[in-house]
Amino acid sequence: MFKKMKSGLSGLRQRLSKTHNSIMGGVEGAAPTMSREEFLETLEESLITSDIGVATSLDIAERIRSKGGQNVARLQEYLRDYLYDILKEVEAPLKIERSPFMVLVMGVNGVGKTTTIGKLSAHLSSAGKSVILGAGDTFRAAASEQLELWGRRTGCDVISQSIGTDPGAVTFDTIKAAIGRYANIILLDTAGRLHTKSNLMDELKKINRIAGRELAGAPHEKLLVLDASTGQNALNQARLFNEAIGVTGIVLTKLDGTAKGGIIVPLAKELKIPIRYIGVGEGVEDLREFKAREFVEAII
Ligand SMILES: Nc1nc2c(ncn2[C@@H]2O[C@H](COP(=O)(O)OP(=O)(O)O)[C@@H](O)[C@H]2O)c(=O)[nH]1
Ligand SMILES: [Mg+2]
Asked: Which ligand has the minimum distance to the alpha carbon of residue 139?
């Protein structure tokens, strides 16, 4: 039913057009008539607006300045190379090296955790894996209903319990079911209410403990979902979850429809955590493996 995960530049370029426009919009049309210094100043401002970060933006402009030369097209090339060097460091696709392999999916409310799980379950099951979904967000009734809907769409079993149940119990049940049914992959959804920050982190720690007790090495991936459209907030969340829980992979969602996709650069530079996937839409096919080259080509 679902085909191989999409790749290729043309569709991606269109999905990332807002970030592209925010970085290149100011310089692209006017570039041939601009002086080199005008170009660099415009670029500097655009980079800052796209959430690439002030220090990085100034550094990029400075490096390009020091390279000399007057060719504006060449400057764009420098820019591509610079960003590629940063982003290739975090290009590391998720490797599923054991069975069952457990992915703990974390992140604050609304970033796209449940949707990402749905998309991922479609992709993995179409690749021949048997996937079990665990409805660890027991805080809202709608959360497990949403996951069950994805389970029906993608043909994956969903383990859920009534609202208010300890998510540790759901973790336990999901792992037991995965072992009993010889499932290959467990995708565990979690709650994301940030206003009770310490409770959320305690809850995640407990889930981790129970997972590790029931299944050796689990969770094998601690996947943090971040909403690119929140810009700097996404970076703050990454720091917070990484300090409290440890993050082994990132999914950056909603890169379609935001001009702040530049946030991927400080994320990569500062945290150096692999970016496994990017979300470029709400549909089941709108999750892509992160490829640095493709990404840079699409935004510059
Ligand atoms: N445009 C766009 N919307 C997304 C993407 N990922 C998730 N969403 C939407 O974001 C909203 C919140 O997603 P949800 O998975 O419920 O977030 P959760 O609270 O973290 O589980 C939903 O309307 C999703 O369709 C994406 O990559 N692009
Ligand atoms: Mg959810």
From this structure: 2
Q: What is the pTM of this model?
A: 0.95
Read off the pLDDT of residues 205-217 as tens digits, 9 standing for 90 and up: 999 999 999 999 9
| Mean pLDDT per 10-residue section of the chain, whose length is 300 residues | 65 93 80 79 89 91 77 79 96 97 97 97 96 95 94 96 94 98 98 76 96 98 98 96 97 95 96 98 95 94
Pocket around ligand 1 at a 6 A CB cut-off? 107, 109-115, 192, 253-254, 256-257, 279-282, 286
E-only strand ranges, the chain: 101-106, 131-136, 157-159, 185-190, 221-227, 249-253, 275-279, 287-289
**Separation of CA 150 and ligand 1 centre (Å):** 13
Angle between helices 197-214 and 232-244 (to 10 degrees): 50
Atom of ligand 1 nearest to the CA of 279: 27
- Cβ-in-10-Å burial (0-12, 13-18, 19+) of 34 comes to middle
By the 8 A CB rule, do 52 and 266 touch? yes
In whole angstroms, what is the distance from residue 16 CA to residue 187 CA?
27
Pocket test for ligand 1, best of 15, 282, 287, 289 (most atoms within 8 A of CB): 282
* Distance from C-alpha of 28 to C-alpha of 19, rounded to nearest angstrom: 13
Q: How far is the CA of 142 from the centre of ligand 2 (A)?
A: 8
Q: Write the burial class of residue 84 (CB in 10 Å: 0-12 exposed, 13-18 middle, 19+ buried).
A: middle
Chain centroid to Cα 209, Å, comes to 24
CB 294 within 8 A of CB 7: yes
Ligand 1 atom 25: residue of nearest CA: 282
